[in-house]
Amino acid sequence: MGRNLFDLTGRTALVTGSSRGLGLAIAEGLAEAGATVVINGSDPVRLAETAAGLRAQGFTVHEAAFDVTDEDAVMAAFERLDAAGIAVDILFNNAGIQLRGKIVDQTAENWRKVIETNLTSAFLVGREAAKRMIARGRGGKVVNTGSLMSALGRATTAPYTAAKGGIKMLTQAMTAEWAEHNIQANAIGPGYMLTAMTQPLADDPKFDSWVKGRTPSRRWGTPDDLIGTAVFLASSASDYVNGQIIYVDGGMLAVI
Ligand code: GCO
User: Fold this and answer.
1) For the whole prediction, is pTM greater than 0.70?
2) φ, ψ at 36 (rounded to 5°)
């Protein structure tokens, strides 16, 4: 039988921020491709409910409830995974929040919360995962969730835009140091996807109409639209792809 470059059987994937939304869709897609998934969120109750739903589909799931912005919590979580014999081969740094508001009205607290959740977490979790991947000598995959805002700015999204721009460049910095260890670091840039984060935008008829007009596909994306790209970047099919951001945006960034 021919090779299946997209088969993730025997690999373990940690997806941060995966109790719902894009992260859950990614975790489900990786599990469908054969991976054991470690799901993460800050709320252990919600995480357990999500895990039960995935297990009901026959997937192998571990729960790792920890705050991705807290260095001690991240390090303790990886020590727990080590103790349980769970080796993370694939890391999706997906955790993210959005706090909209004009720069002149933004608080320093909101700025820090967004930067820490959307960008610093990728450094903290990526560092712990890569230490172990390098030590094991089996290579690995790191995929960071970027955004249209890794390339363009939109009024009222400055902290998010700064963080997602940082994600693009952190991905390239990871490549500079980790590619020689056969760790491929890349990013996915979702367009306007219908999730809890964007629902308030979709509920605004003017914004909804703008997204559909500005997007060549003439529709909002869905979390499931990310799965193919996620499996590609998690699999052997992307072993020579490094430092790239793949926009899954219905063509929005390709046109004016
Ligand atoms: C916004 C949205 C966007 C989307 C997405 C686009 O306020 O414009 O929150 O930032 O969430 O990131 O890629």
Assistant:
1) yes
2) -80, 135
